[in-house]
Amino acid sequence: MEIFFPRYAYLEIDSMMFFPTLILSLLFVKRNYINLLKSIAIVSPIYLFWDFLATWKDSWSFNPKYVLGIYVLDLPIEEVLFFVVTPFATLLIYDFVQEKMKDKEVSWVPKVIKAVIPFLILSLPFTFTYSYTFVDTLYLIMALSISLIAGKQMLSSRNFWIYMGLTYIPFMVFDYFLTSIPVVIYGPHSILGVRVITIPVEDFIYSFSMLVLYTLFYRGTDIWMKQK
Asked: Residue 5 has what pLDDT?
Protein backbone atom coordinates (compact mmCIF):
# COMPACT_ATOMS: atom_id res chain seq x y z
CA MET A 1 0.00 0.00 0.00
CA GLU A 2 1.39 3.37 -0.99
CA ILE A 3 1.68 5.92 1.82
CA PHE A 4 2.30 8.86 -0.53
CA PHE A 5 0.04 10.30 -3.18
CA PRO A 6 1.30 9.81 -6.73
CA ARG A 7 2.74 13.03 -8.17
CA TYR A 8 3.03 14.50 -4.65
CA ALA A 9 5.38 11.93 -3.10
CA TYR A 10 8.61 13.94 -3.39
CA LEU A 11 6.86 17.15 -2.31
CA GLU A 12 5.45 15.32 0.71
CA ILE A 13 8.92 14.07 1.64
CA ASP A 14 10.32 17.60 1.38
CA SER A 15 7.42 18.83 3.52
CA MET A 16 8.03 16.14 6.15
CA MET A 17 11.54 17.54 6.55
CA PHE A 18 10.66 21.22 6.38
CA PHE A 19 7.56 21.88 8.48
CA PRO A 20 8.51 20.06 11.70
CA THR A 21 11.89 21.80 11.52
CA LEU A 22 10.21 25.16 11.00
CA ILE A 23 8.07 24.67 14.10
CA LEU A 24 11.04 23.59 16.23
CA SER A 25 13.10 26.51 14.90
CA LEU A 26 10.46 29.06 15.82
CA LEU A 27 9.66 27.63 19.23
CA PHE A 28 12.74 26.05 20.74
CA VAL A 29 16.08 26.50 18.98
CA LYS A 30 17.95 29.75 18.35
CA ARG A 31 19.23 29.85 14.77
CA ASN A 32 21.45 32.11 12.68
CA TYR A 33 19.30 32.62 9.58
CA ILE A 34 21.78 34.92 7.86
CA ASN A 35 24.51 32.26 8.02
CA LEU A 36 21.97 29.64 6.97
CA LEU A 37 21.17 31.61 3.82
CA LYS A 38 24.90 32.13 3.15
CA SER A 39 25.54 28.41 3.47
CA ILE A 40 22.68 27.51 1.12
CA ALA A 41 23.77 30.16 -1.39
CA ILE A 42 27.37 28.85 -1.45
CA VAL A 43 26.91 25.07 -1.28
CA SER A 44 23.60 24.33 -3.01
CA PRO A 45 24.72 25.51 -6.48
CA ILE A 46 27.72 23.15 -6.28
CA TYR A 47 25.46 20.15 -5.75
CA LEU A 48 22.77 21.36 -8.14
CA PHE A 49 25.43 21.54 -10.85
CA TRP A 50 26.29 17.90 -10.19
CA ASP A 51 22.57 17.07 -10.16
CA PHE A 52 22.04 18.63 -13.58
CA LEU A 53 25.01 16.74 -15.02
CA ALA A 54 23.92 13.47 -13.40
CA THR A 55 20.41 13.61 -14.85
CA TRP A 56 21.83 14.63 -18.24
CA LYS A 57 24.24 11.66 -18.19
CA ASP A 58 21.59 9.26 -16.79
CA SER A 59 23.47 8.62 -13.56
CA TRP A 60 20.06 8.97 -11.96
CA SER A 61 16.60 10.15 -12.90
CA PHE A 62 13.32 10.98 -11.19
CA ASN A 63 10.24 8.82 -11.46
CA PRO A 64 7.63 11.02 -13.22
CA LYS A 65 4.87 9.21 -11.31
CA TYR A 66 5.99 10.78 -8.02
CA VAL A 67 6.84 14.37 -8.96
CA LEU A 68 4.65 17.35 -9.82
CA GLY A 69 6.00 17.67 -13.34
CA ILE A 70 7.37 21.19 -12.83
CA TYR A 71 11.03 21.26 -13.87
CA VAL A 72 13.98 23.62 -13.54
CA LEU A 73 15.88 22.56 -16.64
CA ASP A 74 15.89 18.76 -16.16
CA LEU A 75 15.35 18.76 -12.39
CA PRO A 76 11.95 18.46 -10.69
CA ILE A 77 11.16 21.50 -8.59
CA GLU A 78 11.09 19.19 -5.55
CA GLU A 79 14.74 18.28 -6.15
CA VAL A 80 15.70 21.95 -6.23
CA LEU A 81 13.78 22.49 -2.99
CA PHE A 82 15.68 19.54 -1.49
CA PHE A 83 18.82 21.70 -1.46
CA VAL A 84 17.03 24.29 0.66
CA VAL A 85 15.05 21.95 2.89
CA THR A 86 17.96 19.61 3.70
CA PRO A 87 20.35 22.22 5.16
CA PHE A 88 17.44 23.99 6.87
CA ALA A 89 16.44 20.76 8.61
CA THR A 90 19.79 19.12 9.32
CA LEU A 91 21.56 22.23 10.57
CA LEU A 92 18.90 22.43 13.26
CA ILE A 93 20.58 19.32 14.69
CA TYR A 94 23.91 21.18 14.67
CA ASP A 95 22.35 24.13 16.51
CA PHE A 96 20.78 21.80 19.07
CA VAL A 97 24.02 19.89 19.72
CA GLN A 98 26.01 23.12 20.04
CA GLU A 99 23.46 24.56 22.44
CA LYS A 100 22.92 21.51 24.64
CA MET A 101 26.25 19.65 24.71
CA LYS A 102 29.64 20.61 26.04
CA ASP A 103 32.21 20.44 23.27
CA LYS A 104 35.64 18.83 23.39
CA GLU A 105 38.60 19.05 21.03
CA VAL A 106 39.51 15.90 19.09
CA SER A 107 42.71 17.16 17.51
CA TRP A 108 43.63 13.80 15.95
CA VAL A 109 40.72 13.81 13.50
CA PRO A 110 42.19 16.27 10.94
CA LYS A 111 45.38 14.14 10.89
CA VAL A 112 43.35 11.05 10.05
CA ILE A 113 41.46 12.90 7.31
CA LYS A 114 44.73 14.18 5.88
CA ALA A 115 45.96 10.57 5.70
CA VAL A 116 42.72 9.29 4.14
CA ILE A 117 42.57 11.77 1.24
CA PRO A 118 45.49 10.19 -0.74
CA PHE A 119 43.75 6.80 -0.54
CA LEU A 120 40.55 8.35 -1.86
CA ILE A 121 42.50 9.85 -4.75
CA LEU A 122 44.09 6.47 -5.48
CA SER A 123 40.64 4.86 -5.54
CA LEU A 124 39.40 7.10 -8.37
CA PRO A 125 40.66 4.95 -11.29
CA PHE A 126 38.82 1.96 -9.81
CA THR A 127 35.48 3.81 -9.66
CA PHE A 128 35.74 5.65 -12.97
CA THR A 129 33.24 3.35 -14.73
CA TYR A 130 30.62 4.03 -12.04
CA SER A 131 29.55 7.62 -12.65
CA TYR A 132 27.86 8.28 -9.30
CA THR A 133 30.57 6.54 -7.27
CA PHE A 134 33.34 8.39 -9.11
CA VAL A 135 31.86 11.89 -8.74
CA ASP A 136 30.83 11.05 -5.18
CA THR A 137 34.47 10.36 -4.35
CA LEU A 138 35.59 13.56 -6.06
CA TYR A 139 33.14 15.62 -4.04
CA LEU A 140 34.19 13.88 -0.84
CA ILE A 141 37.83 14.73 -1.57
CA MET A 142 36.82 18.33 -2.29
CA ALA A 143 34.74 18.66 0.91
CA LEU A 144 37.45 17.17 3.13
CA SER A 145 40.20 19.24 1.51
CA ILE A 146 38.28 22.51 1.87
CA SER A 147 37.50 21.65 5.48
CA LEU A 148 41.15 20.92 6.26
CA ILE A 149 42.12 24.30 4.84
CA ALA A 150 39.25 26.45 6.12
CA GLY A 151 37.59 24.45 8.89
CA LYS A 152 40.15 22.57 10.94
CA GLN A 153 38.46 23.83 14.10
CA MET A 154 35.20 22.27 12.95
CA LEU A 155 36.87 18.94 12.18
CA SER A 156 38.47 19.01 15.63
CA SER A 157 35.13 19.49 17.37
CA ARG A 158 33.57 16.46 19.06
CA ASN A 159 30.16 18.12 18.78
CA PHE A 160 30.53 18.28 15.01
CA TRP A 161 31.00 14.51 14.77
CA ILE A 162 28.13 13.84 17.17
CA TYR A 163 25.97 16.04 14.94
CA MET A 164 27.14 14.27 11.78
CA GLY A 165 26.25 10.92 13.31
CA LEU A 166 22.80 12.15 14.32
CA THR A 167 22.06 13.40 10.79
CA TYR A 168 22.03 9.81 9.56
CA ILE A 169 18.87 9.11 11.56
CA PRO A 170 16.60 11.34 9.42
CA PHE A 171 18.76 10.48 6.40
CA MET A 172 17.89 6.79 6.75
CA VAL A 173 14.17 7.59 6.96
CA PHE A 174 13.87 10.03 4.08
CA ASP A 175 16.38 8.41 1.75
CA TYR A 176 14.62 5.11 2.31
CA PHE A 177 11.42 6.70 1.02
CA LEU A 178 13.21 8.22 -1.98
CA THR A 179 14.89 4.96 -2.97
CA SER A 180 12.16 2.46 -2.07
CA ILE A 181 9.13 4.10 -3.69
CA PRO A 182 11.26 4.84 -5.80
CA VAL A 183 11.36 8.56 -6.51
CA VAL A 184 15.02 8.35 -7.55
CA ILE A 185 16.06 5.77 -10.13
CA TYR A 186 19.77 5.03 -10.64
CA GLY A 187 21.11 4.48 -14.12
CA PRO A 188 23.07 1.44 -15.31
CA HIS A 189 26.72 1.45 -14.21
CA SER A 190 26.22 4.53 -12.03
CA ILE A 191 26.56 2.80 -8.65
CA LEU A 192 28.49 -0.14 -7.21
CA GLY A 193 25.25 -1.91 -6.27
CA VAL A 194 26.00 -2.07 -2.55
CA ARG A 195 22.91 -0.98 -0.63
CA VAL A 196 21.76 -0.58 2.96
CA ILE A 197 18.15 -1.75 2.68
CA THR A 198 17.30 0.22 -0.50
CA ILE A 199 19.84 3.04 -0.06
CA PRO A 200 23.01 2.92 -2.21
CA VAL A 201 26.21 3.28 -0.22
CA GLU A 202 27.01 6.27 -2.44
CA ASP A 203 24.12 8.20 -0.86
CA PHE A 204 25.80 7.97 2.55
CA ILE A 205 28.95 9.53 1.08
CA TYR A 206 26.90 12.14 -0.79
CA SER A 207 25.15 13.20 2.41
CA PHE A 208 28.43 13.34 4.32
CA SER A 209 30.27 15.57 1.86
CA MET A 210 27.28 17.85 1.38
CA LEU A 211 26.66 18.35 5.11
CA VAL A 212 30.35 18.91 5.81
CA LEU A 213 30.25 21.88 3.43
CA TYR A 214 26.86 23.19 4.55
CA THR A 215 28.04 23.10 8.16
CA LEU A 216 31.40 24.69 7.39
CA PHE A 217 29.81 27.74 5.78
CA TYR A 218 27.01 27.85 8.35
CA ARG A 219 29.31 28.00 11.38
CA GLY A 220 31.85 30.07 9.48
CA THR A 221 35.28 29.15 8.19
CA ASP A 222 38.27 29.49 10.51
CA ILE A 223 39.13 32.77 8.75
CA TRP A 224 35.63 34.15 9.41
CA MET A 225 35.80 33.02 13.04
CA LYS A 226 39.09 34.90 13.54
CA GLN A 227 37.60 38.07 12.09
CA LYS A 228 34.75 38.11 14.64
From this structure: 82
In this prediction, residue 191 carries a pLDDT of 95
Phi, psi of 200 (to 5 degrees): -60, 145
CB distance 190 to 131 below 8 Å: yes
80 pLDDT above the threshold of 90: yes
